[in-house]
Write a structure and sequence with these properties.
The structure is a single chain. By secondary structure, the protein is an alpha+beta fold. The protein folds into three domains: 221 residues, 2-Layer Sandwich (Beta-Lactamase); 88 residues, PAS domain (Beta-Lactamase), CATH 3.30.450.20; 230 residues, PPM-type phosphatase domain (Phosphatase 2c, domain 1, 4-Layer Sandwich), CATH 3.60.40.10. It contains 15 helices and 22 strands. Strands 1, 2, 3, 4, 5, 6 and 7 form a seven-stranded antiparallel beta sheet that branches. Strand 5 and strand 6 form a beta hairpin. The longest helix has 72 residues. The radius of gyration is 53 Å and the shape is elongated. It starts with a helix and ends in a 7-residue tail after the last strand. 30% of the residues are buried. The N terminus is likely disordered.
């Protein structure tokens, strides 16, 4: 059974059989459909339960809001009544405390009343008057806050004055022991001339919040909390948070960033449901809504699993049944697919032997005309063709090996035709010379040569035959032979133009293949550094002077060997001590990089300016290194020949 699932490939790797792939594919497809159905059912059921949860929490929030607002409404009404009495009746400072005590006594929900008169009040008796009545045990006490503090800097005085409207202050602790949390409602009062008269307010203890929240029918492990307009907690099961922490500080200290967007939505007065993660309680659902117009927001928290308990149980049952069904289906499909793929497996075993080199291994018998039978017949035909192909391949391989051997010999012969011993004239101190030839293929058409035509003259030759391969190499050998023979035949070397014309005429005779060669001759007089040159269709040499490197002036000269009777012009110059000449073939300037960009003569000339002071060998090696870097791994497309001659101006040993 294990062999069916994990047969070995020829390289030892394990694979998966067709039967297993077929079974897994079918089960994967059916499983994907099943999971999509389960996911759709779960999503729709979850949305329905969340909507039901949101509706239930909305009703609970409305009921809590109506109870929250009952007591603040009393405080707002008492404050407005007190402001109306001051505006209409203008009582004396002695009457005001009595009126405030009577109003506080008739409203048990209110903890205290205060009137903070303006220091610019019209009546001078009010300018240093701030009456306060408050409950202390079962009695109502009075005092003038002006005798204890500057009331005009307190929030309950300044906020109505600055905002010019009634408002609720942020909750605060009534004493340093933080046992009683309070809130104040204040309104501004103006006289008949719209001058500020006083800030009037009522204060409430917030112990009634705990009573209201404790009676909310939240159920389960849920709880409620209440935050102010800046996110500060005024009601929460964790009492240490009250008025000391906000949703944002808890998010920072407890590393719960998901509380930050919830806090922003709550203080903006939005309504909705958010999902949070508590490290201790797990995933939570939070319903939140504003409470009246006092800027507070109510949050009701439930563990998500408690809200979605039914659907979670349903999902678990569906998952268990689905996995069991998929496993049963896997066994059934594998059994059926194994019966279908058995012939393929036997054919695989036979072809494994074929792949291992046993071309005479028997194939399974062919029965019927299904795809497996046709495939078996195709393998039998392939095996016969492969045997015939191997026989032909042996013959062709032997022929290619013979050709490769002959090409190696031809390359060795070709490279032996060009000078390879450097320095070539160690006893002649006037010469610093180095050259390098690199064919693009096994053999090529480039060549170089240099030799003394007499004791004081040196001939430099660089050529490039059209085409590549063995024909170009043979044509190169013939051309080199003509050059050397004609240069020394008369005992003294003719001028380079005449020498090139003679070589051209000899090559053109019987040139039925219409091949040609580009040539560059330079004859240097080693006594004074003067030189003559001629070029037949070849790039002009470069003069590497002491200050700069420049191309030699162009002279006319056609391709060599294409047609007899051609005339080749000459140019000349004189090398100072330390100056030199650089001869090359177009394989240098036409080198390509990986982006198929040409090296170009411009880039080569820039390099020459940078390297003009180098010795000949160092110069050639550096030039070849730069060409290689430019190509960047691109295949060499043409033969490359580099020849550098530098006139040192020394003497010659006898």
């Amino acid at each position: 059974m294990k062999e069916h699932f994990f047969p070995l490939f020829p390289d030892g790797r394990r694979g998966v059989s067709i039967a297993a792939k077929l079974a897994l594919t079918i089960v994967a497809g059916v499983g994907a459909i099943f999971l999509a159905i389960v996911f759709y059912g779960y999503s729709t059921s979850r949305e329905a339960l969340e909507e039901e949860f949101q509706g239930r929490m909305e009703n609970l929030g409305r009921a809590a809001e109506s109870r929250f607002l009952q007591i603040p409404v009393v405080a707002e009404a008492v404050t407005r009544d007190l402001a109306l009495m001051l505006s209409l009746f203008e009582p004396s400072p002695e009457k005001i405390p009595e009126m405030m005590k009577e109003m506080l006594a008739s409203h048990s929900q209110v903890t205290g009343l205060y009137v903070g008169f303006s220091r610019q009040a019209t009546n001078p008796r009010f300018r240093n008057f701030c009456p306060l009545v408050f409950r202390q045990g079962n009695s109502i006490q009075y005092k003038n806050l002006a005798e204890e503090m500057d009331w005009t800097v307190q929030d309950w005085y300044q906020l109505p004055l600055q905002m010019a409207r009634p408002l609720w202050t942020e909750p605060f602790f009534a004493d340093e022991r933080a046992e009683s949390m309070m809130i104040s409602y204040g309104i501004p009062v103006y006289d008949a001339h719209w001058r500020y008269m006083a800030s009037i307010g009522a204060s409430l203890e917030l112990h009634w919040l705990a009573d209201i929240i404790s009676t909310m029918d939240i159920g389960g492990r849920g709880y409620a909390f209440l935050v102010t307009s800046n996110g500060a907690f005024v009601s929460h099961p964790r009492r240490e948070l009250l008025m000391r922490e906000t949703l944002f500080t808890v998010a920072e200290t407890e590393n719960r960033p998901d509380l930050i967007p919830l806090g922003h939505r709550m203080i903006r007065g939005e309504k909705g449901v958010a999902s949070l993660y508590d490290p201790l309680r797990g995933r939570l659902l939070v319903f939140f809504r504003p409470v009246g117009n006092i800027g507070w927001s109510l949050g009701i928290v439930f563990p998500e699993e408690e809200v979605l308990d039914d659907i979670i149980q349903l999902r678990r049952v569906q998952t268990f049944l689905g996995l069991g069904g998929m496993f049963a289906m896997l066994l059934m499909v594998f059994f059926i697919s194994n019966r279908i793929s058995g012939p393929i497996r036997r054919l695989k075993d036979a072809t494994t032997l074929l792949a291992a080199g046993d071309l005479h291994a028997p194939l399974p018998p062919v029965t019927g005309r299904d795809e497996v039978a046709l495939l078996t017949g195709s393998f039998a035909s392939m095996r016969e063709n492969l045997l015939l192909h191997l026989e032909r391949l042996k013959t062709e391989t032997a022929a290619r090996e013979r050709i490769a051997s002959e090409l190696d010999i031809a390359r060795s012969i070709q490279m032996s035709l060009v000078p390879r011993t450097f320095p070539p004239f160690p006893k002649d101190g006037r010469i610093d010379l180095y050259a390098r030839l690199e064919p693009a293929r096994e053999v090529g058409g480039d060549f170089y040569d240099f030799f003394h035509t007499d004791d004081d003259h040196l001939l430099l030759v660089v050529g490039d035959v059209s085409g590549k391969g063995i024909p170009a190499a043979l044509f190169m050998a013939v051309t080199r032979s003509f050059v050397k023979a004609l240069a020394v035949s008369s005992g003294s070397c003719p001028p380079p133009g005449a020498l090139m014309a003679a070589v051209n005429d000899r090559i053109a005779e019987g040139n039925d293949a219409c091949m040609f060669v580009t040539l560059c001759f330079v004859i240097v007089d080693l006594r004074d550094g003067s030189f003559l040159y001629a070029c037949g269709g070849h790039p002009f040499p470069r003069l590497m002077g002491l200050e700069e490197a420049t191309a030699l002036p162009s002279v006319k000269g056609p391709l060599v060997g294409a047609m007899g009777g051609m005339v080749f012009e000459e140019g000349g110059g004189t090398l100072r001590q330390g100056e030199g000449l650089f001869l090359f073939t177009d394989g240098v300037t036409e080198a390509f990089n990986a982006e198929e960009a040409l090296l170009s003569e411009g880039l080569m000339d820039r390099w020459l300016g940078e390297m003009r002071a180098l010795g000949s060998e160092e110069f050639v090696r550096e030039m070849r290194r730069r060409i290689t870097l430019f190509a960047g791994g691109a295949e060499q497309s043409d033969d490359i020949t580099l020849l550098c001659f530098r006139y040192t101006g020394g003497g010659r040993e006898n």
